[in-house]
Amino acid sequence: MSPDLSMDIKGDRIALRGLRAYGYHGVFPEERRQGQYFVVDAVLDVDVSTAAATDDVADTVHYGELASRLVEVVAGEPVNLLEALAERLARVCLEEGPVRRAQITVHKPSAPIPHEFEDVSVTVVRGRP
């Protein structure tokens, strides 16, 4: 007997990594004036079985459109903290119909840290109630 591949395994994911956008977020006035690039990673828990069966983008997350919405948030109204920015981005992802959970990481590779470093980031995980 062959296994039922149509059952909801709840392990499907769509990932958008390395999305770069220019924004004016930060605690310091020079960050608000000059701005800098932020990098966003979004990992979405989504049941893709319907989209796989129908082969229709309407049954899944259109990651091109989602990327544009995320860039709008990063380029939009400034916040002081990466935590606040990550929260906004997670809310945008959860507005996508089939998304059950969103893991958002916001990287700030040019953060004003007076030491040599590779990256600083904040990750939030949010789901539907």
Give the % helix: 25-40%
Spans of 5+ residues with little confidence (pLDDT < 50)?
A: 1-9
Distance between the termini: 37 Å
Question: Do you know the CATH topology?
Answer: GTP Cyclohydrolase I, domain 2
- Helix/sheet category: alpha+beta
Q: Quick one: CATH class?
A: Alpha Beta
Number of strands: 4
| Second rung of CATH, namely the architecture | 2-Layer Sandwich
**Count of individual helical segments:** 4
Oligomeric state as shown: single chain
Q: How does the major sheet shape up?
A: 4 strands, antiparallel
Strand order of the largest sheet: 1-2-3-4
Counted up, domains total 1
CATH superfamily: GTP cyclohydrolase I, C-terminal domain/NADPH-dependent 7-cyano-7-deazaguanine reductase, N-terminal domain
Listing every helix as H and every strand as E from the N terminus to the C terminus, the arrangement reads EHEHHHEE
Outline? elongated
List the helices and strands and how they pair.
Blueprint: E1 13-23, H1 29-34, E2 36-46, H2 49-54, H3 63-75, H4 82-94, E3 99-107, E4 121-127
Antiparallel strand pairs: 1-2, 2-3, 3-4
Helix pairs in contact: 3-4
Q: How would you concisely characterize the structure shown here?
A:
By secondary structure, the protein is of the alpha+beta class. It has helices at about 30-35, 50-55, 65-75, 80-95; strands spanning about 15-25, 35-45, 100-105, 120-125.
What does the model show?
- The protein has 129 residues and is an alpha+beta fold.
- It has one domain: GTP cyclohydrolase I, C-terminal domain/NADPH-dependent 7-cyano-7-deazaguanine reductase, N-terminal domain (GTP Cyclohydrolase I, domain 2).
- Helix content is 29%, strand content 29%.
- It contains 4 helices and 4 strands; from the N terminus they run βαβαααββ.
- It has helices at 29-34, 49-54, 63-75, 82-94, and strands at 13-23, 36-46, 99-107, 121-127.
- The chain has a 4-stranded antiparallel beta sheet.
- Helix 3 (63-75) packs antiparallel against helix 4.
- The longest helix is centred in the middle third of the chain and has 13 residues, at 63-75.
- Mean pLDDT is 92; it is low at 1-9.
